[in-house]
Amino acid sequence: MGRLYYGSDAQPAELPDRVLAHLKVVATTKLRRGESFTVTWRHLDDADGRTSIWMQPAIPLRFVFDDPEPETLDPDYLHAIANAANTSMGVYIDLHGEPDTMDAVAPAAA
To answer: Lower CB count within 10 Å: N or C terminus of the chain?
Structure first.
C-alpha cells in the first residue's frame, strides 16, 4: 500500500501502489496546469465512511510508494482517471473491490 499525504494532515490516505501511481500522473499533470479537482475514496476501516479532498496547486502533496520500482501504467485506466478528474464529480476510488484489479478501483462515471 502506498500513501498519499495531503496538506498538513499527518495521517495519510492508504492506496494500492498501482492506483497511487495512476493518480500521481493525473494529479501532477492537472496541478501543473493550475487545474483543481476532487478525489474521493471509501475508508478501508469503515465501510460507511468516505473522504473527499480538493486537489489544488497550493496544497502540499506527497506520494509514497512501498515498491521501489515504478508501476507500469495502464493507458486505459489513466485515461479514465483523467476524464473523471475533468468532471464535477471528480475521481472516485473504490478500495473495497477485488485486490489487484483495475475494475476494483474505478473513477466515477461522468
So the answer is: C
